[in-house]
Design a protein that fits this description.
alpha/beta, six-stranded parallel beta sheet, about 35% helix, about 575 residues, about 15% strand, globular
Length: about 575
């Protein structure tokens, strides 16, 4: 007979967990005590629970393993909520353990009691409170299975203190058998043949690749399929890297800030072969105009995602890699030379660049990363920094991009980089952020220093919440409401005078880094880029902030206004 806490530790070991991101508290203290006596699982202590779950998320995305969190009840649990929703949107496998007050106190508004299962039920794949000690092993086993199978996602397991302390069997199940949860593990050959038949008749076919291709590890077979058929390919932001971004048949990202070639190709194609994307509004634009001339084939592991936003002609419920491997068996080269030439001409005639801006630009910094880092893991925050990164970063077989696509969570990039570096200690990890998003979890500099992580933290500082400011410039007559990060109470309300003397920016990121025993350098010119990255690479014991001072009103182009179709692009914002 062993305590529930001891079975908890045994279960983690059985599931192959070697890294746990945790923050202790009263209702989880017994679980942390049980972890103290073992050496197989390293407990990482971030400085805030939201950063903790983003770190677990970055660890999971970069390693392919299940990320594991452990926090206490009440605010410890509720601080996970944003990270749970982030992982849920982007199909990231997490198991989040929360301590809970003893069951005799539940429902009595006890200190630090919240119904975390009720709170998270709509934003995770599965959530459950362990009510009996004899169910603990089974529930943990099921949690890991649910998190990593089918469409991956976060699972929440709430463990009351009395269950943690109760004695029971030391047995941990070998198998899982959950009634009503049977992930699809095959491919419907009839639907595959039907899809290939339609593809072969197409004059203007197009592959649309989403994050599901990356999640299933289908990158190599997807490249084979593109080269076999000769069909051009585009990606969502989450799908970038599904084939190498420098591949001649790759046209770029689709959507609100997609490339001219990609958006035009969707509007003109006659067959849209979509794999691993749920057609959210960021990529479709005006739904009635989206691929209106095309027959749509949709492969997705989640049946709920098919025909949810865009009604499709041929649905295929399957893992992306399994489906693509089967398609290759039946596919053949297509006679679409004119279409391919046309799409390539669009790509040539309308390149994405920031040539109109003087001085240091995000494009120049990201190009430097492309040219000087062999196998980087790059994380981004959310906003203009994310969009520039997804436009200019080259993603190939040995490179990874981690970003919050579905929820668009500011504060994600830096802690995700911490998790990625812990999971991949031998690879360079670069976090790209804006000056706004960086401050949302900047306390994690202490975590990165404590664990001696030589991260490179690139901050594009334009003094604004840039993405919202861009919308205010274009559609709200430059009424920069609550987006200037240099604002002081003594400032004039009108922020359109470029010649005015603005207050000093707060904080000084270089001094702030140094106060954490990290490193910092500020650059203003392209010529300083090499010096800055060399400076960062010299330091192996702590992170380095490279603060890049960029044009205050630099915009992300092209752009599709809300409610417009994809071919209603503003080419030069």
């Amino acid at each position: 007979m062993i305590k529930g806490t001891e079975l908890f530790v045994k279960a983690l070991k059985e599931e192959g967990v070697d890294i746990l991101f945790g923050y202790p508290g009263g209702q989880a203290i017994d679980l942390f005590d049980a972890l103290y006596d073992q050496d197989d699982i390293e407990v990482i202590l971030p400085r805030h629970e939201q950063a903790l779950i983003h770190a677990a998320d970055g660890y999971a995305r970069s390693t392919g393993k299940v990320g594991v969190c452990l926090v206490t009840s009440g605010p410890g649990a509720t601080n996970l909520v944003t990270g749970i929703a982030t992982a849920n949107y982007d199909s990231v496998p997490l198991v989040c353990f929360t301590g809970q007050v003893p069951q005799n106190l539940m429902g009595n508004d006890a200190f630090q009691e919240v119904d975390i299962v009720g709170i998270t039920n709509s934003i995770c794949k599965y959530s459950v409170t362990v009510r009996k000690r004899e169910d603990l092993g089974r529930i943990i086993k099921e949690a890991f299975y649910i998190a990593r199978t089918g469409r991956p996602g976060p699972v929440v397991v709430d463990i009351p203190k009395d269950v943690q302390q109760a004695l029971g069997t030391d047995e941990y199940p070998d198998e899982v058998n959950i009634r009503g949860y049977k992930p699809n593990e095959g491919v419907h050959i009839g639907q595959i043949k039907k899809a290939v038949s339609v593809l072969k008749k197409a004059k203007k076919p197009l592959f649309l690749l989403g994050g599901g291709v990356n999640l299933s590890g289908a990158n190599e077979v997807m490249k084979q399929l593109v080269e076999l058929t000769g069909v051009p390919a585009i990606t969502t932001i989450m799908g970038k890297g599904a084939i190498p971004s420098n591949h001649p048949l790759y046209l770029g990202n689709i959507g609100i800030h997609g490339s001219y070639a990609a958006n035009n190709a969707v509007s003109e194609c006659d067959v849209l072969f979509s794999i691993g994307t749920r057609f959210n509004d960021r990529i479709t634009g005006k739904i009635s105009e989206f691929a209106k001339n095309a027959k749509i084939i949709h492969i997705d592991v989640d049946p709920a995602s098919i025909s949810k936003n865009i009604v499709v002609d041929i649905p295929i419920v399957a893992d992306a890699k399994l489906a693509i491997e089967k398609i290759i068996e039946y596919a053949s080269p297509l006679n679409i030379a004119k279409w391919s030439e046309k799409t390539q001409q669009w790509k040539k005639d309308y390149p994405i660049n920031m040539d109109k801006y003087k001085g240091l630009t995000p494009e120049k910094v990201i190009r430097y990363i492309n040219e000087n880092f062999d196998k980087p893991i790059v994380t981004t925050d959310v906003g203009q920094n994310q969009l520039w990164t997804t436009q200019y970063l080259d993603i190939e077989t040995n490179r990874q991009l981690l970003t919050s696509g579905g929820l668009g969570t500011m504060g994600y990039g830096f802690p995700a980089a911490i998790g990625a570096k812990i999971g991949n200690p031998d690879r360079p990890v670069i976090a790209i952020s804006g000056d706004g998003g960086m401050q949302m979890n900047i306390q994690e500099l202490a975590t990165a220093v404590a664990y001696e992580l030589p991260l490179i933290l690139v901050i594009f500082n334009n003094g604004y919440l840039g993405n919202v400011r861009q919308w205010q410039e274009l559609f709200f007559n430059k009424r920069y409401s609550s987006t200037c990060l240099k604002y002081r109470k003594s400032c004039e309300r009108d922020c359109q005078n470029k010649d005015k003397c603005c207050p000093k920016y707060t904080p000084d990121f270089v001094k702030l880094a140094e106060s954490y025993d990290a490193y910092g350098i500020r650059i203003f010119n392209e010529e300083d880029t090499k010096k800055a990255f060399d400076y960062a690479l010299e330091h192996k014991d702590a992170p380095t902030i490279i603060e890049c001072i960029i044009e205050h009103e630099a915009n992300v182009s092209p752009m599709v206004p809300t409610g417009k179709s994809l071919n209603d692009m503003i080419m030069d914002c």
